[in-house]
Amino acid sequence: xxxxxxxxxxxxxxxxxxxxxxxxxxxxxxxxxxxxxxxxxxxxxxxxxxxxxxxxxxxxxxxxxxxxxxxxxxxxxxxxxxxxxxxxxxxxxxxxxxxxxxxxxxxxxxxxxxxxxxxxxxxxxxxxxxxxxxxxxxxxxxxxxxxxxxxxxxxxxxxxxxxxxxxxxxxxxxxxxxxxxxxxxxxxxxxxxxxxxxxxxxxxxxxxxxxxxxxxxxxxxxxxxxxxxxxxxxxxxxxxxxxxxxxxxxxxxxxxxxxxxxxxxxxxxxxxxxxxxxxxxxxxxxxxxxxxxxxxxxxxxxxxxxxxxxxxxxxxxxxxxxxxxxxxxxxxxxxxxxxxxxxxxxxxxxxxxxxxxxxxxxxxxxxxxxxxxxxxxxxxxxxxxxxxxxxxxxxxxxxxxxxxxxxxxxxxxxxxxxxxxxxxxxxxxxxxxxxxxxxxxxxxxxxxxxxxxxxxxxxxxxxxxxxxxxxxxxxxxxxxxxxxx
Length: 485
Ligand SMILES: NC(=O)c1ccc[n+]([C@@H]2O[C@H](COP(=O)([O-])OP(=O)(O)OC[C@H]3O[C@@H](n4cnc5c(N)ncnc54)[C@H](O)[C@@H]3O)[C@@H](O)[C@H]2O)c1
Known about the structure:
Layout (H helix, E strand, L loop, with lengths): L10 E3 L2 E3 L6 E5 L6 E6 L3 H20 L2 H17 L1 H12 L3 H7 L1 H14 L7 E4 L2 E9 L2 E5 L5 H14 L3 E5 L6 H12 L7 E3 L4 H9 L3 E7 L2 H13 L3 E5 L5 E4 L5 H13 L11 E5 L3 H12 L20 H16 L3 E4 L14 E4 L6 H4 L6 E7 L2 H8 L4 E2 L1 E5 L3 H10 L4 E4 L14 E2 L2 E2 L6 H6 E8 L9
Parallel strand pairs: 7-8, 7-10, 8-9, 10-11, 12-13, 12-18, 13-16, 15-16, 18-19
Antiparallel strand pairs: 1-2, 3-4, 5-6, 6-22, 11-21, 14-15, 17-20
Family: Belongs to the aldehyde dehydrogenase family.
EC number: 1.2.1.8
Enzyme class: oxidoreductase
């Protein structure tokens, strides 16, 4: 039975909690049982305006601070997050239903890593000097201004930190809108940033549904929008941002391929396939849901994946022994089961799972299909649930062609012990984030993001700096100015 985790108020603006109960009610439930965790209100127009006004007012003084000063605050926030990791992880588990076993290591912890990373490099964010004969030029790296972050529900605090840390390190201010399904942890992040010394108004959180996100994107005070969400939402937000010629980062969906060649270390490849499909009950954008296996090893590989998947411990996410939890919502539960039905109807062979779990609630069994063909819905569309599809292949050329035959381009992975092949395959992948002999590792030091319909821009690493700052070029004339007449 989860404790009610009612925050002081729904929104956090200008360093304090703010409420406006004229907004639409926004209730968050523990996905394992349906119990209410907190009840909040979506932002009214006046809350949206309040948040943007605060972010706009805080802009100049925050940008005027040195990178070292800004970085120190971010690093302090990272330390506080680490101290409170368990409390934040429990909150994330209540909000998302993800097993505590996962949230203890992957959510707030990744957020802390991100704040620490950008806190550490903030002091070194500079322009450059360009000698031009006796003249020279230099560039000034400037913040963009007021940024808007819009989050998905699968990694709430991680997404908030992945947007806040680079934005703030570069001297921007941010208004963050979490997913309406997971409103809680971003408020905690706001509290922690204030405690770490962040000036009021630099990081603000407002709650709401898509229309609140839309109102933020449309506001003329906003210079940049970073969205983590689905491709259809991405198309809308990108189009709206284009009207104001705003910068964007789009972290969208995927249908990523994982190629297993017959010379791969099978145990490692089996582990990776399991991680790539069943971690967070399959609710991960970069999941390798199309598992292409070279024909000779397919029976053995399939048998091993099935045997290991049967050992999943499905249970209460708050029990640390549980390693497989429920779907976030009724909608995601229904979508997943409907795709499983489509897989059966379109002729794939159901190897394991395929049903709602007998425990009730929003649990869907870890599900494995074999004999999947490229044209089936389960091989083409993002399910965002625990559904693994096996597709046999013969040659490298064939596997690559089929792997790339998708509108998405978020991620891709390859397992082989042939070093040359590994790099050749990765070079040919049409995907922004690739793994060789592992899958789904996303350290802050490595850029993350997609190509094709999966997105625009990169999060994390030095690459993110380019998406939260812009260069002003200054030409300095050192000699006489000549004119034709
Ligand atoms: N590439 C990545 O880094 C990444 C990470 C996690 C999730 N995702 C993707 O996110 C999706 C699942 O998350 P979701 O269901 O929350 O996605 P979603 O697209 O439904 O919603 C994402 C966010 O956008 C907001 N939103 C919806 N309509 C809007 C509009 N018109 N204007 C502005 N904001 C709007 C929502 O309120 C929410 O906060 C999947 O497709 C998944 O692949 C991508």
